[in-house]
């Protein structure tokens, strides 16, 4: 299609990997990956609902959503549409119509480095949507763009096929190859934090968390 570079979709993340991270918080994941894999500057526009799935990446010209429309023709159930819009917030890249299309195709959610509109529709929904801002101004639909390429959002690089996790604190991503060691690390961290909380509640906390914490 004119103006849009299409690449094959990445392998879907193993459902067992997604299940393992279903209840893991984004702060814990970030802490266990040297506090690096955070998509800074994005906030949740949806009512509630956890985001987890496979990164299906899109790069667009500022304020242009043609490539996103074409991506929605290729996505699989469980994919997360991750859009590098260059942080431009002058025009909305998605709204109620694209949300409805995405939901009908089983998309797990939107991560938009740009603006959205029709925010009431997102605020009343559990369909995850993270973006930088909102504006009523609509997008161009002329391209160019690229689908399933490496993108950069909020200072972090996202590759097609990465694991995407979002909660009330924000969005993190990581390669599936890290999942096995990462899940061990986050479980150990969760155990350690539970022990510290128990000490605090019992009045026996001695400051060890601050002394032992990384960074």
From TrEMBL:
GO terms for molecular function: metal ion binding. Substrate binds at residues 95-98, 117. It holds the Pfam family RraA-like. Keywords: Magnesium, Metal-binding. The keyword Metal-binding applies. InterPro entries: RraA/RraA-like (IPR005493), RraA/RraA-like_sf (IPR036704). Mg(2+) binds at residue 118. Its cofactor is a divalent metal cation; Mg(2+). PANTHER family: 4-HYDROXY-4-METHYL-2-OXOGLUTARATE ALDOLASE 3-RELATED. This is Putative 4-hydroxy-4-methyl-2-oxoglutarate aldolase. It comes from Methylobacterium pseudosasicola.
């Amino acid at each position: 299609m004119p103006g849009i570079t299409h690449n094959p979709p990445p392998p879907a993340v193993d459902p067992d990997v997604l299940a393992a991270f279903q209840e893991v918080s984004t702060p814990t994941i970030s802490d266990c990956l040297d506090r690096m894999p955070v998509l800074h500057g994005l906030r949740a526009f949806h009512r509630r609902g956890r985001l987890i799935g496979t990164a299906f990446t899109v790069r667009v010209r500022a304020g242009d959503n043609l490539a996103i429309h074409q991506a929605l023709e290729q996505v699989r159930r469980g994919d997360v549409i991750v859009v590098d819009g260059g942080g431009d917030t002058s025009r909305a890249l998605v709204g109620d119509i694209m949300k409805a299309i995405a939901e009908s195709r089983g998309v797990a959610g939107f991560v938009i480095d740009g603006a959205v509109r029709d925010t009431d529709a997102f605020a009343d929904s559990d369909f995850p949507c993270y973006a930088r801002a909102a504006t009523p101004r609509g997008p161009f639909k002329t391209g160019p763009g690229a689908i399933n390429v490496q993108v950069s959002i909020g200072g972090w690089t996202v590759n097609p096929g990465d694991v995407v996790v979002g909660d009330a604190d924000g969005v993190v991503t990581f390669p599936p190859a890290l999942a096995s060691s990462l899940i061990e690390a986050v479980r150990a961290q969760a155990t350690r934090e539970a022990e510290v909380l128990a000490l605090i509640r019992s009045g026996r906390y001695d400051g060890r968390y601050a002394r032992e914490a990384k960074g």
